[in-house]
Recover the amino acids of this structure.
């Protein structure tokens, strides 16, 4: 037979679970379930446009006040993570409550209710679930292009806000038009975000 499962990863760690099947006629058996998260797909494209004529005027280390500097804004909220939370939660609630949670799940009231409900089911939330409820997070920032320098640390004071935060970049001279990736990894290792970075040179 087939056992259909819907799995959602809330951390970057490999998780192992045991599913126990009991049957008085054929006996009991156990299946081990291993969940291995894949690298996140880029969830948003960020655009950077610079003049080809500008030259770097940094002295020593690269500076973000240089004429080759740029700023991109990334969402405070991890949109993919909250989409997963919403989907998994909708699968566990009765139909009579779906209208309420569709309206209030991502509000402050709904957020607190969800946290309380999960804590009621378990005395202590697992680390990968608990990190969803953190208000402030610090991320390590990296770019896959050797032509792009970014501040290696970004702190988002409210990861539930529907606003954005700036990331400062420095683009090397003579950088060709390219599409690269910007990755944010939380310092606790539980969350990873990926954005496409589209760099174009004008003039």
């Amino acid at each position: 037979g087939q056992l259909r499962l819907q799995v959602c990863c809330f951390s970057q760690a490999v998780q192992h679970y045991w599913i126990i099947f009991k049957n008085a006629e054929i006996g009991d058996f156990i299946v081990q379930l291993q969940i291995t998260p894949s690298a996140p797909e880029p969830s948003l494209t960020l655009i950077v446009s610079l003049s080809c004529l500008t030259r770097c005027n940094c002295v020593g280390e690269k500076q973000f006040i240089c004429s080759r500097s740029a700023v991109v804004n990334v969402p405070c909220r991890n949109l993919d993570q909250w989409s997963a939370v919403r989907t998994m939660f909708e699968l566990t609630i009765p139909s009579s409550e779906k209208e309420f949670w569709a309206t209030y799940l991502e509000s402050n009231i709904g957020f607190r209710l969800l946290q309380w409900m999960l804590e009621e089911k378990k005395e202590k939330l697992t680390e990968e679930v608990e990190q969803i409820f953190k208000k402030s997070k610090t991320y390590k920032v990296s770019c896959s292009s050797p032509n792009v320098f970014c501040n290696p640390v970004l702190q988002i004071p409210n990861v539930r806000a529907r606003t954005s935060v700036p990331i400062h970049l420095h683009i090397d001279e003579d950088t060709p038009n390219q599409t690269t990736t910007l990755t944010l990894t939380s310092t606790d290792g539980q969350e990873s975000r990926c954005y496409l970075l589209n760099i174009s040179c004008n003039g």
Q: What stands out?
A: Strands lie at 15-21, 29-35, 45-51, 69-75, 137-143, 148-150, 153-156, 164-171, 178-186, 192-202. The chain has a mean pLDDT of 84. The chain is about 20% helix and 35% strand. The helical segments are 79-90, 95-104, 108-121, 127-130.
